[in-house]
């Protein structure tokens, strides 16, 4: 997870890959029980471009933590 976080921090642009990568990373953090890190990333996704319903999914997982079934 540390390496994923380092990669995520490399690029803060709002490209498709950055948005979806940040969403997936949040889901991974949720799946392994790192809820506070997941919440921070879901909130970042909400401020980015809405790619492939990324904002809706971030809102969904802010309300109910991702459990690892839909990754």
* Helix fraction by DSSP (H/I, runs of at least 4): 55-70%
Distance between the termini: 16 Å
Order of helices and strands: HHHH
Structural class by secondary-structure content: mainly alpha
How would you sum up the global shape? globular
Residue-averaged pLDDT, rounded? 86
Rg over alpha carbons: 11 Å
Largest sheet: none
Give the low-pLDDT segments.
none
Tags for this entry?
71 residues, mainly alpha
Can you describe this structure in just a few lines?
The chain has 71 residues and is mostly helical.
Describe the structure.
By secondary structure, this protein is mostly helical. The longest helix has 16 residues, at 16-31. α3 runs antiparallel to α4 (54-63). Helix content is 66%, strand content 0%. The chain is globular.
